[in-house]
């Protein structure tokens, strides 16, 4: 038995490589495809997700998503709840090569034996059959996945929401490949500023070669590290190949020189007017997001922040307000009632925004930003709890990167290396918080 407690998705310094290494070491499916060896009952991929289960008696289209779901009458079997979603290699006597299992507990068998019935069975199972099981992006905005299969004269629909969009598109690519999707040998990239499209042949040969070597040399630390570096370098390699192709045309030389000198180039997935930059975790997992080509266009653009101001016609300009977080008291219950057991209802909560969502938690679990140092007096003396309460302002701003004349203040000033390192560490701590 194995107890899975998957990470919360918050990147830590030095933790990225270990997370990727553990993820690669569990990918036994690569051995299956490369060496022709099967591992029945072994876990291929696992993650904690929010899952909702619906049923319908109507026929579902091949491209079933949230837009098609509006026209389909369905019944909810289970509301949103957390499951451990496991992709496991099926037994030799089963028709499907892989199956998706949903567990309510984190203590699950590492290897499932069909003959020896294990005590802990999964709550739901979806055999990944190519002719009956389908997968799609249910929402192109939050990257919710949808799996559906025939069930009791209709269809059973599973809505899966992983921890992050990067993880979601990686699952989407993985499931589509299991169900028969094959990556095209070339990659089309649009350059909207030049109104051209580029076609790159075999852009992932280095990564696939490194993965093949890692699957052959199971447990080899050097092979796994090489695969990690190759996976991280995918986006940069594609950008460099695009720039090399564009430099072969003289009419764009001035634009390319300006890009090289003043801009940082990046890749972005575009759908309608929405851009999703391949940056951070998305950049490290770009290979796992290739199935998004079905609904998105891949573009090469100079990296620019979205505008933080708006200038309406015949009106003064408006600046984007700073994000707000803090403690609030909720005066109604979840049902909107102002009283409970004859007493006025109130509940203390901490509200904050994250990834376009308004979130809240109990005050005991909150991690508010530290108060400004100037309000606490000298740094040499440790203030008491009473002093912190009395001297901390009710509202204060947190700005780890104060900008003046286009430069960060604590980098522009003639600061010592210790001060710069301290300010950098405080900015990193704020970003992690």
Structural commentary:
The chain has 433 residues and is α+β, with helices and mostly antiparallel strands. The chain has helices spanning 15-25, 29-35, 66-69, 165-178, 205-216, 221-232, 234-246, 253-262, 281-284, 385-391, 409-412, 417-432; strands at residues 2-3, 43-56, 75-89, 98-103, 107-108, 124-127, 134-137, 145-151, 154-161, 186-191, 196-201, 265-271, 274-277, 297-302, 309-310, 318-319, 326-330, 339-340, 343-344, 347-354, 357-361, 403-404, 407-408. Strands 6-4-3-2-9-8-7 form a seven-stranded antiparallel β-sheet, covered by helices on one side. It has a three-stranded antiparallel β-sheet with strand order 13-12-14, covered by helices on one side. Helix 1 packs across helix 6 (221-232).
Annotate the secondary structure layout.
Layout: E1 2-3, H1 15-25, H2 29-35, E2 43-56, H3 66-69, E3 75-89, E4 98-103, E5 107-108, E6 124-127, E7 134-137, E8 145-151, E9 154-161, H4 165-178, E10 186-191, E11 196-201, H5 205-216, H6 221-232, H7 234-246, H8 253-262, E12 265-271, E13 274-277, H9 281-284, E14 297-302, E15 309-310, E16 318-319, E17 326-330, E18 339-340, E19 343-344, E20 347-354, E21 357-361, H10 385-391, E22 403-404, E23 407-408, H11 409-412, H12 417-432
Antiparallel strand pairs: 1-5, 2-3, 2-9, 3-4, 4-6, 7-8, 8-9, 10-11, 12-13, 12-14, 15-16, 17-20, 18-19, 20-21, 22-23
């Amino acid at each position: 038995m194995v107890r899975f407690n998957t990470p919360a998705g918050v990147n830590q310094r030095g933790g990225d490589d270990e997370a990727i290494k553990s993820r690669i070491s569990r990918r036994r499916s690569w051995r299956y495809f490369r060496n022709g060896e099967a591992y029945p009952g072994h876990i291929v991929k696992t993650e904690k997700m929010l899952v909702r289960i619906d049923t319908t008696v109507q026929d579902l289209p091949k491209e079933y998503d949230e837009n098609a779901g509006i026209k389909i009458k369905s019944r909810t079997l289970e509301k949103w709840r957390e499951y451990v979603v496991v992709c496991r290699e099926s037994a030799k006597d089963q028709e499907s090569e892989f199956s998706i299992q949903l567990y309510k507990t984190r203590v699950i068998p590492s290897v499932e034996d069909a003959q020896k019935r294990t005590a802990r069975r999964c709550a739901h199972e979806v055999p990944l059959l190519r002719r009956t099981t389908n997968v799609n992006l249910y929402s192109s905005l939050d990257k919710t996945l949808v799996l559906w299969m025939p069930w009791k004269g209709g269809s059973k629909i599973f809505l899966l929401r992983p921890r992050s969009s990067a993880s979601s598109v990686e699952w989407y690519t993985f499931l589509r490949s299991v169900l028969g999707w094959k990556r095209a040998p070339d990659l089309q990239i649009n350059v909207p500023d030049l109104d051209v499209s580029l076609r790159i042949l075999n852009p992932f040969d280095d990564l696939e070669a490194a993965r093949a070597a890692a699957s052959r040399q199971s447990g080899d630390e050097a092979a796994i590290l090489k695969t990690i570096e190759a996976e991280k370098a995918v986006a940069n390699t594609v950008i460099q190949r695009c720039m090399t192709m564009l430099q072969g045309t003289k009419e764009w030389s001035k634009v390319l020189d300006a890009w090289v000198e003043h801009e940082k180039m990046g890749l972005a997935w575009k759908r309608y007017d929405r851009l999703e930059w391949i940056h951070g975790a998305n950049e490290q997992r770009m290979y796992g997001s290739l199935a998004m080509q079905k609904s998105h266009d891949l573009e090469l653009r100079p990296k620019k922040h979205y505008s933080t101001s708006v200038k309406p016609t015949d009106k003064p300009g408006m600046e984007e307000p700073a994000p707000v977080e803090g403690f609030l008291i909720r005066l109604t219950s979840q049902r909107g009632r102002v009283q409970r057991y004859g007493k006025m209802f109130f509940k203390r909560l901490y509200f904050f925004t994250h990834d376009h969502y308004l979130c809240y938690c109990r005050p005991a679990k909150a991690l508010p930003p530290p108060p400004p140092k100037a309000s606490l007096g000298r740094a040499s003396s440790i203030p008491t709890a009473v002093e912190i309460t009395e001297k901390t302002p009710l509202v204060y701003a947190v700005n780890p990167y104060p900008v003046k004349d286009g430069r960060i203040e604590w980098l522009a000033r003639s600061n010592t290396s210790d001060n710069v390192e301290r300010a950098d560490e405080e900015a990193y701590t704020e970003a992690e918080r």
